[in-house]
TetR family transcriptional regulator
Amino acid sequence: MSEPEGSARRRELLEAAYAWVLEHGWAGMSLRPLAEAIGSSPRVLLFLFGSKDGLIAALLDRSRADQLAVLDDLRDGPADLATVGARVWAWLAAPGHRALLRLWLEAYTRSVGAAPDAPWAGFAARTVGDWDALLAAHQDVDDPARRALLLAVLRGSLLDLLATGDTARLDAAVAAHLATL
């Protein structure tokens, strides 16, 4: 039986595990090395989170909380779709966000095609819905296709940025698309 989700020790270990995953990614995450790195044991993690999948689900929720906080910040103030798109890109392109965005990408990729009972299931779809809602809040006329295209440009540019680091080229590409809005 897991300790209550609100326990101080659970929160402490979740934050430590989240910091570790931000630095090291999801690939090859194993309970023993993770527990050792954060000053715990696999048994304690299993007790607090129920299973490795329970820990992964908690980490995904923690990661999503960071994403939703970003969306809340970007949602503030009146802006048209091009302006909010530019603000989103500025946030995505900021070097200080690379660890979170690499983690997001890995979780997003694992989510696509995940079994319904897997901890990753639905993560990508929820992410798309979250970002679409942000963009929809800044459209005068509901245009799902235009939002989908903007989201695809932003996501594709982010993938290229994470792969190449070529900020200048991608800033220009995003700006060119935003000019069409």
Q: What stands out?
A: The chain has a mean pLDDT of 91. Residues 61-179 form one domain. The CA atoms of residues 10 and 48 lie 6 Å apart. The chain has two domains: 1-50, 61-179.
